[in-house]
Every structure is written in structure tokens, then in C-alpha cells.
Specification:
This is Response regulator transcription factor. It comes from Cohnella soli. With about 110 residues, this protein is an all-alpha fold. Helix content is about 75%, strand content about 0%. It has one domain: Arc Repressor Mutant, subunit A (Orthogonal Bundle), CATH 1.10.10. It is built from 7 helices and no strands.
């Protein structure tokens, strides 16, 4: 599954919406966060994808860093992983969820 498809997956959208609410991200910051986290692109690549300048991307990333209380873009990715993806996979692997078929991330592995 490529990253564009992954970004469009409803489960992924739900996880990023939770982050948006928790950290009071703007719609654009949330969009930048998703693309950045799922692709690992540079500010220039992000800007090209969103038709914005590299400087604007730097400003969005800096704003996200402030809201996440981190100092680097890699720390942003760590917050996303620890806050959303890791708990989702750990909670999804318990026997109750597996027995009831409640595995919203199952389509991610196909």
C-alpha cells in the first residue's frame, strides 16, 4: 500500500483527527502533519505537494513543533507514533479485539 493510499485510509484519518483535536492543530497543520509523517518528505517536497512555498512549510512545521512541545521534525514523528499508531496496534492485538473481529487496522497490512 503506498503512502497516498495510506493517507486516505479512514483509520489513519481518524488517528490524525484525534491529534488535531488534542493539540489544537489547524486544518492545514493537520494536512501537513499527515503528509509529513506518512511520507517523511522535506519541506520543499511538502510545499510542492501542497502548492506552497518551502518557507510556508517551515512555518507550518515550526508551529506543529511548538504545539507538540518538541524541537525537531523527527520528534514530531515520534509523537505521532507514540500517541496514535503504537497504542492502536497494541490495543488491536489483544485477544478480545481479535476474537470480536475489531481490528480497524487490518486493512493496513494488505
Amino acid at each position: 500500500m503506498d503512502s497516498i493510499t495510506l493517507q486516505q485510509h479512514p483509520f489513519i484519518g481518524m488517528l490524525f483527527d484525534e491529534l488535531k483535536d488534542k493539540y489544537q492543530l489547524t486544518r492545514r497543520e493537520n494536512e501537513v502533519l499527515q503528509i509529513f509523517t506518512l511520507n517523511g518528505w522535506t519541506n520543499r517536497e511538502l510545499g510542492d505537494a501542497l502548492n506552497l512555498s518551502e518557507k510556508t512549510m517551515k512555518n507550518h512545521i515550526a508551529s506543529i513543533q511548538r504545539k507538540f512541545n518538541v524541537n525537531s521534525s523527527r520528534e514530531i514523528q515520534a509523537v505521532v507514533f507514540r500517541s496514535t499508531l503504537l497504542p492502536a496496534f497494541l490495543n488491536g492485538s489483544d485477544s478480545q479485539n481479535s476474537q470480536e473481529g475489531k481490528r480497524p487496522y487490518a486493512a493496513l497490512s494488505s
